[in-house]
Design a protein that fits this description.
binds 6-hydroxymethylpterin-diphosphate, about 15% strand, 8 strands, alpha/beta, eight-stranded parallel sheet
């Protein structure tokens, strides 16, 4: 049975796993099959609703990787996620990597280009009937932090997401399988990121579940003056605010801690399942 990723009774937790040498937070931490398996089992055991497995870093100034390299990195992580029986998404912009992952059990494609990078992506997602995340990004990872500029960041991200939803649905993607994401940190200054979080509830008018990925990102580091491995409290603040603004799922590196933050917020907000624990 596919997982119920549209469950609105509580905030869902997406655990991040990067099979990369260069991701800003967990890059290079899981260099062999055993450490990959252990980390994935750990996040599943901590009750992540879904994992997001990436094999190409999208940190500012990251260089793209070839399809062959992406598949080579993905293979052991996908196998470990299947073994752990945890639903998983794959964070990729390439249709062939998406197809490879969907044939190995992925239930969601998280495309940071919102189906713009690879013209075949929309058809692959439509054909499989899987979930997909449409995320906003200004520029590409290589260039996005050079000089991000908006007239009104919330209005522009909103318009962008509305257009990408139309594109996806016109291309055959199931409407009940689309999630949207304002793309915290993707071609945005600290002020843009804070404004998006503050006004996240605006995106509810689009009528699709909202995912947000603030975990350990540099906006938190800039405000608190701390390195990536010391941003847990800052992340917790962003998760709590995002939940009060109606977010459906939070994408985080620290599943256990952020699940507790989410359950506490859910209980305060009177969301049903928080009271069952
Ligand atoms: N952030 C990152 C990667 N993918 N996908 C969505 N939908 N939303 C996000 O905010 C998002 C994302 C960057 O974080 P991480 O995967 O930890 O780092 P890296 O890109 O360096 O691998």
């Amino acid at each position: 049975m596919p997982p119920n990723l549209n469950d609105r009774t509580r905030t869902l937790i997406m655990g991040v796993f990067n099979a990369t040498p260069d991701s800003f937070f967990d890059g290079g931490r899981f260099p062999d099959e055993e450490s990959i398996r252990q980390r994935i089992r750990q996040m599943a055991g901590e009750d992540a609703d879904i994992l997001d497995i990436g094999a190409e870093s999208s940190r500012p100034n990251a260089s793209p990787v070839s399809l062959e390299e992406e598949l080579r990195r993905l293979a052991p992580a996908l196998e470990a996620a299947q073994e752990a029986k945890v639903p998983f998404s794959v964070d990729t912009r390439k249709a062939q990597a998406a197809r490879y992952a969907l044939e190995r059990g992925a239930v969601m494609i998280n495309d940071i280009s919102a189906l713009r990078h690879d013209p075949d992506m929309v058809a692959v997602i439509a054909e499989h009937g899987c979930w997909c995340v449409l995320m906003h990004m200004q520029g590409t990872p290589k260039t996005m932090q050079i000089c991000p500029a908006y007239r009104d960041v919330v209005a522009e991200v909103y318009e962008f997401l509305a257009r990408r939803i139309e594109f996806a649905v016109a291309g055959g993607v199931r409407e009940d399988r689309v999630w949207i994401d304002p793309g915290f940190g993707f071609g945005k200054t600290v002020e843009h990121n804070l404004e998006l979080l503050r006004r996240l509830d605006t995106f509810q008018a689009l009528g699709f579940p909202i995912l947000v990925g603030t975990s350990n990102k540099s906006t938190i580091g800039d405000i608190l003056g701390v390195p990536p491995d010391d941003r847990m409290e800052g992340t917790a603040a962003t998760v709590a605010i995002a939940i009060t603004r109606g977010v459906h799922c939070v994408r985080v590196h620290d599943v256990k801690a952020m699940l507790r933050v989410a359950r506490m917020c859910d209980a305060i907000l009177g969301k049903d399942a928080a009271l069952d624990v």
